[in-house]
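ligand=NAI
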Amino acid sequence: MKIHDRFFINGQWSSPATTRVHEIRNPATDEVCATVPLANEADCVHAIESARAAFPAWSVTSASERGDFINQAADELMKRADDLADAITQTMGCPRHICPNLQVLGSIQAFRAYADRAKTMEQSEQRKGVQILKEPVGVCTLITPWNYPLSILIGKAAPALAAGCTMIAKPAEQTPLQDFIVAEVFEKIGLPNGVFNLLTGIGPEVGPVLCGHSEIDMVSFTGSTRAGVQITESAAPTIKRVCLELGGKSPLVITEDADIDAAVRYGVQNVMMNTGQTCSALTRMLVAESRYEEAISLAKHVAEQNIVGDPLDPKTTMGPLSSASQKSTVVDYIRKGIAEGARLVTGGAEMPEGLTHGAYLPPTIFADVNNQMSIAQEEIFGPVLCMIPFRDENHGIELANETVYGLSSAVFAKDQDSALALARRIKAGQCFVQGANFTTDAPFGGYKRSGNGREWGEEGITEFIEIKAVLGQ
Ligand code: NAI
Ligand code: MG
């Protein structure tokens, strides 16, 4: 049982203004595994003032100084990799043997990449009579969710640090523990006081202050569309920059002449990864109708190879949902899918065999889904795949784009060129062709209601930059 009773503000472990605490439950056991303090308005203002006070000095450090801090922090995070994985497994249920690769090590590597990208801040462009300078946007609020809690924090904090911004991190209620480890690392390497501040709190309570205060310049948020709207409203009166990474209902298009076996395996594994809690998950599998029944039996086979159970068992491939409440959301969708007339191919709303408690659900596949059903339109955020047939490629692309979201997508076709031609027609921020893997070198972000920013890659730092034009030379 981990008890945290301080926030990290202005380089100090600082006592909260009230004694309210939040209990964190392990979703595999439903037992309380940690407590954290809950911030009130005074705590938020304290953190904001500390980040504001640190900004003038931090914003004019050299890129190489900031790069050194980033590299040192990455070294220290590597030393804490086991602690980070333990924290994530305990609070959101990712199988412990999968957690280092899925949640921790790649994120630390990605953090390190921003040491080099800091140099972009010192590159000015000379146009005719105009010099274009880059400056950090200022004090940033970073609000993160519980599905990839470390990776998403790093995706915001790394470019913010590289650009010369100062920040306040507010993790999800369910998964704050890795943020405390990150704060310990920044303390250990002697990051200047106030550059990184951490507090824990209930989103709708602290959100209006952290996203509305006049001393905040930018909010970077990953999470639900509902919270994204509230955050944007809080930030609007003071015209803050708001960078949102929201939900998705991403399509995988499989053409008649694709390698169906490889395509279906890729698609099912993609959805079931992290128990279906990935914003870019390819949750709609669109298959040429001549291959549809074949794809369904392949998908059933691949899904049923998963071993659902205890995250501490090395045989487990799928842990619980990240909380009891997330499980109940997903159960509701599975019931709705059945009621809407979709064909349940495997899985369902019952506890998987052999398990008696914990937020578990089996890998679930629906066939005979049409794009009007709510299970085809709304983000479920659980291990649920919808399979939809299409008549020809134009119809496939039409279905792919018939969604309010546009975060990710994928195509399997006869060859690379045919896949690329289809990729160009899908309205989404990413498209994975012929089985490509995720990389933090690629910009990531959404079209439409999936968001309005880009994280990772070179583009990730752009969000944290103000452009200044100096005229008259
Ligand atoms: P949420 O959006 O409420 O939580 C994410 C973060 O936002 C947390 O840190 C929370 O404290 C904060 N938050 C919530 N309301 C806020 C407000 N008014 N102002 C400022 N911060 C606020 O997500 P929730 O309720 O945990 O999950 C609901 C659904 O959201 C999921 O079923 C899934 O569909 C989607 N989601 C999407 C994620 C993504 O990666 N894009 C991640 C997590 C959830
Ligand atoms: Mg919520």
